[in-house]
Amino acid sequence: MLNNIESEEEQRIRFQVELEFVQCLANPNYLNYLAQRDFFKNPAFINYLKYLLYWKRQEYAKYLKFPQCLYILELLQTEEFRTAMMRVPNSKFLEDQMLLQWQFYIRKRRTMHFFHTVLFCLLIYCLISAHDEDGVRLPSRCETCKYLALELEARFSETGQSPENTFNGRGGTKKYRDSELRFIETMENLCDRLLEYNLHKEHKNSLRFARGQSETMKTLHGLVNRGVQVELGLPYELWDSPSVEVTRMKQDCETMLENNEEAIERWYYAKQKEPLRHYLCENRVLNTDERQCLYESQADSTPHTDL
Fold first, then answer.
1. How does pLDDT run across 189-239, given as a tens digit for each residue?
2. Helix (H, G, I), strand (E, B) or coil at 275
């Protein structure tokens, strides 16, 4: 009968090996190394990470020189974080945040609670970044047309309530809401309204474009307001500037508007009872295989994370 009981020497060696490995998890480059070599896809290795949670117990944690490894170990229990660590920008972001935390902790003598908060923020960032191979997914023709139509209808709705009359050029007057002047003023700088949008990467479909701050940016701003240093690779005052995707959608909107001005004018004078998304996007701009985003709703948009 085999004896599976470890000797005292074997227990000592296992303790040392696991102590060293757990603390290696505090190295973001090592996390990326493991992820790139598919260790995080191995069920046996995932079970091993779960087993190592015993290091969170006080009688073991007291031996750790790098206690932040426990927060990493906890995050590694989630598939999303393990997947996110495959991308070098994510591991680099984690490394930068750790360096800033050490600097902040030494200077301010705050508790490690701040580090936990930063890593929570990092997890959100990584979950979002992990879904885009290059970090940027430019707007589709469908998304551009959808929001062009929404903004144009919204602008016409705003100006349609005016009771003012306007000179019609033939010695008479007509209602402003039926006039060519209203059409011209509505079309002018229409696409600039898209610069008010932000990218909400927690949504996977066309609802990623919306006004207001994304959940990620709300979290990041909240951390900054509490005194945590967060480095995103650009100045703080530029955090809320239009993203590459939003800027591109504005440019595509201007081109689409110019190419379809006559069709929009016909809709304005005779077809306003028909939704512009249907009249313009579905019937005139988009091919059959490009129309999927037009009628997407909140129910169709599943966030990348349940945090």
1. 999 999 999 988 778 889 999 998 887 788 888 888 888 777 665 667 777
2. coil
CATH class given for the domain over 10-126 = mainly alpha
According to DSSP, the residues that pair with 199 across neighbouring strands are 209
Q: What is the signed CA dihedral for 152, 158, 163, 166, rounded to 10 degrees?
A: -40
**Strand residues in 20-104 grouped as ranges (E):** none
Burial of 89 (0-12, 13-18, 19+ CB in 10 A): middle
Sign of the C-alpha dihedral, residues 60, 61, 63, 66? positive
For the stretch 3-32, pLDDT in tens is: 568 888 888 999 999 999 999 998 988 998
As given in the structure block, the two tokens for residue 282 are 């579905």
Query: For residue range 71-123, what is the model confidence (pLDDT) as tens digits?
Result: 899 999 998 888 888 887 788 878 877 776 665 554 444 444 445 555 555 55
Distances (CA, A) of 226 to 142, 220, 222, 223, 236: 40, 10, 6, 5, 15
Within 13 Å and on the Cβ side, how many CA atoms surround 289?
0
| Angle (deg, nearest 10), helices 88-108 and 113-129 | 160
Which amino acid does the sequence have at 122? Answer: L
Hey, where are the domains in the chain? 10-126, 141-294
Tokens 């304005």 locate to 268
DSSP annotation of 282 reads I
Cα→Cα distances 301→148, 218, 219, 304, Å? 20, 19, 20, 9
The counts of H helices and E strands in the chain are: 14, 4
Give which of 90, 100, 123 is closest to 219, Cα–Cα.
Answer: 123
